[in-house]
Structure formats: C-alpha cells, structure tokens
Fold this protein.
Amino acid sequence: MTGRRVAIAHWLAAAMLACFAALPARAAERPTIRIGWVAVPAELQALLFAKPGVSQHVHQSYELDAIRFAGTPAMITALAAGELDIAPLAYSSFGTAIDKAGMTDLRIIADEFQDGAPGYYTNEYMVLKESPVRTVEDLKGKVVASNAIGSALDMGLRAMLRRHGLEDRKDYTLVEVNFANMKSVLLDRKVDLICAVIPFVHDPELRAAARPLFSQKEAIGHTQMTMWVARAGYIEKNRAALVDFLEDYLRELHWYTDPKNQAEVIQIVARVTKLPPERFSPWLYTSDDHYRDPRGLPDLEVLQKNMETQRELGFLKKPIEVTRFADLSLIKEAGERLER
C-alpha cells in the first residue's frame, strides 16, 4: 500500500471513529422527559406512541419515560427530589405543593382532563345498593375509602362530608385503597363507600351491586381535575424538547379522541389495561367520559374557583393566584405548529 493510500485509510478510520464517538454524545443531548401517571384511560401517558406514525418528534428530540404513581400527592415528593419532570397534579395536590411544600416554582403547562364540565362525566362516590346509607349524614360512624390522602377524589369526599357536618377521625374512618381494589373492598363490605372513577366505574359487576350516593360535581363543582405541571428551571432548560413533546401530545390527543378511531383505540386501551374491550364501549373518549380540551389548555378560571373552595374548607392557609403559576406559552406554541 502506498504512503498516500495509507494516509487516506487512516483518515477514513479516524472519521468513522469520530462519527461513532459522536453518536452517544448526541443521544446524551436528547433529554428523557419523565412524566407521571395514575390511571388509564383517564390519562394518555401510558398510551402514547402505541399507534405508530402519530407523533413526529419522539426519539428525535426527546425520549419519554412514563412512571406510574398511586396518586398525585406522591408526585409532589418526586418533583421536589428531581425524580420526575412533569406531574399530572390534581387541583388539590397543586395547591398543597405551593401552600405547604413551598414549591412556588411550579408552572402549569397543559390541561389533562376536567371533571364535571357541562355535558361530560363526573366521578361518583358509591355505596352498595342494599346499604342503609341513603344520605351523606348516614355515613357517620362508617368506613369510607379514598385512593390517596390529599388527592382530588379525597378532597371531594372530605369536602362533601364536611359540608354535612362530618369530620375525619371524629365522625367516620377513612382508609386508602387503590382504584383497582375499590370494587372488591366494597363488595366484601370492608368499607361503606368508595371513590369510583373511569374505567372501574363502568364495571358491570360494580354497577349491578352499587349505586352513587353523590358525585364529585355535587361535592366540588366543575373542576380542573388534573393538569401537567413542571418546575420553572426545568422548563427553561428543556423548552425546545418540551414544545416538541407537547406538539406530539396534541397529535396523540386528537387521534385518541377522534370518533373514527374509537374501535382501534378501545383495542389499545384494553391491551394496556388488560381489561376486556367491551368495558370501554361505547363511552371511551366521548361525552360520557371526562372533558379534555382539544387545545391542551387548562381552564384557569375554574381552577381559581377550586383553589378558593379549598381555602374556604380549610385545606389551604393562604389564597393562591393561579395565573402566577401558569406558563401556557409552550402548549400554545405547540398548537400553533399544528395549525400551520
């Protein structure tokens, strides 16, 4: 081999090594967005990217890690510890994080879903059909189940019972039960009332044995049930990737809520939840489900009322002006991209 050929071979080898060396660096520059979730199909996090070709930026400008939690209060701790980047906080947990945990750098970046919006579903608090509990006052001395202390369902439960003169530990016993086990503890008569949420509330066996005592809308009113929240420093550092992710999220949201896709969506949800497909028909992502803003925009006016109700009930020490803790510029930019 001539000296020139040797030089060219060495150059090519060096160039190839440089390219391979750059690959891990580029991968390292692509952030992994860690987002929490509690329940499917109420939340789409665990369903994202199940339909190939809907999203455009995943694996390009970011990766996604969807992490399951029992309830939103635990996500506050994860956010504070830097173990979570985006949390779908309930209105109750959001207020607690600011008021009690001092996390004043939290920013609302997108809507997740709303309970009790006009024409849409509201969560139910159920008792057995043969139960002697006919009014809220009848829960005195009874055992009631909440999914997690301080969660949105827990807040609605406590608010309704307090309105009727009943206080936790004094007038009733409250136990924590995850949503999947609510039906069994009620049917086994271990508790007298449960929080029933989608999809579990549509279980035929539960419907046959139980009846609603009251709804979340009756307890709290229209609520900005959950919204996506991130810390200001994280948003500033990862803004470009977050806008790409939110653009993908809006694409996914529109695909999942398009009536023409419902049959395929039901099959995806059934596979992820390991529940029979008929459990999700015909209500899934219709007006018989929770409301999801197609622009991904939370209702800050409704949320402000939720905060005021929380404070009136004694769950917050001071008023919270929610507009101070919202940065909707990212979701708006993502939406504008879709309209181009």
In short: Residues 3-29 form the longest helix (27 residues). The chain is about 40% helix and 15% strand. The mean pLDDT is 91.
